[in-house]
Amino acid sequence: xxxxxxxxxxxxxxxxxxxxxxxxxxxxxxxxxxxxxxxxxxxxxxxxxxxxxxxxxxxxxxxxxxxxxxxxxxxxxxxxxxxxxxxxxxxxxxxxxxxxxxxxxxxxxxxxxxxxxxxxxxxxxxxxxxxxxxxxxxxxx
Length: 141
What we know:
This protein is mainly alpha-helical. The chain has a domain at 4-75: lambda repressor-like DNA-binding domains (434 Repressor (Amino-terminal Domain)), CATH 1.10.260.40. It has helices at residues 4-15, 19-26, 30-37, 47-61, 65-75, 95-119, 129-140. Helix 4 packs across helix 5. The longest helix is centred in the C-terminal third of the chain and has 25 residues, at 95-119.
């Protein structure tokens, strides 16, 4: 079974099309078409672009795009697994940072308590004389 690039090159040559014609029809750069035909997919921009280029190429040749993508996927069945660094398995914030967060939390708690005490302070002492005597007589009388 020919590779994806060989398959597309054979179909292009059977149709009598040049690389430049495919490039114009698909709007894929000539250098990218040449890389596709020589199966140098790692030199292309990225996986999403490669799949788009292959679909456009197949459409320009009148070949089923799904078949071309299936060939490509079958040829690229290599999984890259990047191991995690050991330090990120159990990340601990630096000790100084935890201490700073604790201090900030305590300060915010103090400010919140102060603000709450100001808002909820009894207003009897701050009332004008007329209102405070009236309020006291209504309460006491």
